[in-house]
């Protein structure tokens, strides 16, 4: 797994959103970026996290943050997820795990005694110049905005 640290230059990327739009890190220069990685659309923790960010979207915008979610789900699944929960920010579909690998969030996980490869829930706060300002490794899905703004 790739290891990124606070103070590192964020790794550039090109990703495809649920609408088919090409999006890249440089699109966010001049704003702070909440780049969050999550395991799967429509699951309880991922839904709680997306809804927390959605409910606080205006507050985050007022604080000069943009939000970008990333998972390995398909564009079609992202569309259903966004429609069901009125998510206002783009979601990247990274089915080949290229972005997940770049940011070191794809790898071995354990659940109920079994080991498997999956996405580690992690958030990178990237400053206006593209430098990693913070990394949230223990995401509180129902209180993520508070973690971003106050920790």
Describe the structure.
- The protein has helices spanning about 45-55, 55-60, 75-85, 100, 145-150, and strands at about 15, 20-25, 30-35, 65-70, 90-95, 105-110, 115-120, 120-125, 130-135.
- The protein has about 150 residues and is of the alpha+beta class.
- It has a single domain, classed as Glutaredoxin (3-Layer(aba) Sandwich), CATH 3.40.30.10.
- The strands form two sheets. The protein has a seven-stranded mixed β-sheet with strand order 2-1-5-4-3-8-9.
- Strand 8 (about 120-125) and strand 9 (about 130-135) form a beta hairpin.
- The two termini are about 25 Å apart.
- The mean pLDDT is about 95.
Full CATH superfamily name: Glutaredoxin
Low-confidence stretches: none
Provide the CATH architecture: 3-Layer(aba) Sandwich
Mean of residue pLDDT values = 94
Features of the shown structure:
alpha+beta, 7-stranded mixed beta sheet, two-stranded antiparallel ribbon, 5 helices, globular
Compact description:
The protein is α+β, with helices and mostly antiparallel strands and 151 residues long. The chain is built from five helices and nine strands.
What's the helix and strand layout?
Layout: E1 14-17, E2 22-24, E3 32-37, H1 44-55, H2 57-62, E4 65-71, H3 75-85, E5 91-93, H4 98-102, E6 106-111, E7 114-119, E8 122-126, E9 132-136, H5 144-150
Parallel strand pairs: 3-4, 4-5
Antiparallel strand pairs: 1-2, 1-5, 3-8, 6-7, 8-9
């Amino acid at each position: 797994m790739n290891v990124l640290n606070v103070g590192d230059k964020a790794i550039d990327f090109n990703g495809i959103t649920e609408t088919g739009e090409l999006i890249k890190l440089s699109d966010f220069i001049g704003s702070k970026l909440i780049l969050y990685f999550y395991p799967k659309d429509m699951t309880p923790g991922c839904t709680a996290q997306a809804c927390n960010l959605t409910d606080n979207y205006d507050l985050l915008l007022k604080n000069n943050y943009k939000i970008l979610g990333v998972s390995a789900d398909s564009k079609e699944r992202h569309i259903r997820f966004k429609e069901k929960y009125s998510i206002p920010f783009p979601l990247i579909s990274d089915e080949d795990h290229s972005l997940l690998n770049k940011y070191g969030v794809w790898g071995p996980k354990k659940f109920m005694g079994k080991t498997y490869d999956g996405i580690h829930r992690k958030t990178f706060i990237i400053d206006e110049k593209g430098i990693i300002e913070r990394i949230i490794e223990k995401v509180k899905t129902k209180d993520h905005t508070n973690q971003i703004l106050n920790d």
